[in-house]
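Task 17 of the worksheet. Students: predict the tertiary structure of the chain below and write it out as structure tokens. Keep your answer in the requested format; marks are given for formatting as well as content.
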Amino acid sequence: MNKSELIDAMAKDAGITKVAAKAALESFVSNVTDTLKKKEGKVSLVGFGTFSVAERAARQGINPATKKPIKIAAKKVAKFKAGADLAEAVAGAKKK
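Model answer:
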């Protein structure tokens, strides 16, 4: 599902216009992004999951083309951990 398909589904499920659904989705993405930018930012949606930021330490890697070692800089990465309801729904879907 891509962004426009998600907007269509949200509009249909909520009984709102596509314009309103797009605004709601963009607001959600913007608020999650802004929260994660803040120090110790985290967004928890009970049952669905948690968006958070993790720090990756600097490490040594290998350039696959030259096989020579390279330094990979430390950085912050966005993480998502599925909540119990989402994990159960996905696991249940695989069993069918």
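Marker's comment: The CA atoms of residues 11 and 19 lie 8 Å apart. The chain has two domains: 1-37, 50-96.
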